[in-house]
Amino acid sequence: MISIIAMHAFSPIRNVSKSSEVFNKLRTAIWSGELPPGTPLREARLAKQLHVSQVPVREALLRLENLGLVVRIADKGTHVTKLTRAEMVQLLEVRSHLEDLAFRLASKRLTPEIEAELVERLADIEKTARANDHFAVAKADLKFHQAVWKASGNPLLEKTLDRLCVSVYAFISLQRHTAHEKLATASHEPLMDALRKHDAKMISKSIRDHLDPDLFIPASIAD
Length: 223
Description:
mainly alpha
């Protein structure tokens, strides 16, 4: 009798290190502004430039798409994410509700260790702000929120917020950098106070204020 294993057609095992390397290079290039919003990303050209086959490039682009850093449009190919003001307002509406939930859950699970990590993240935001580095501030800001999402204890909520927000942080920091806008960061202290006090109403208000579209969205982003 032929075993089930013998009948099954397994796909070949491939080395994924090249895919990860391509992913890291492209992600860094997007964050740094080397690949601006709207830049077309053609598999064949990237493969030639990076001296790899198109397979790891395709895999890397898929990972970037899952993070929201690139978009794939039928018959138009893949481009670095570019958002309009209207699209960003819609994203903030959704994010506000999800962040509210994440902060409420995190406040119930707040431990001295989690609080210490969040305080450290806030210090990173202040440090990078003093250096007037838009991209570093955006990364530090994102890491603070990611720490809260993780503290919520809900992996699905954490992944959903990550998928929703990563591209927004990258896009906003790039826009502010390109427009030479004065670096200004929204205060996170009200959020920390609300977490420490386990106050649901205070959390909701802090989230609304923190994600106010008029303050959060750079003036350089048009409809």
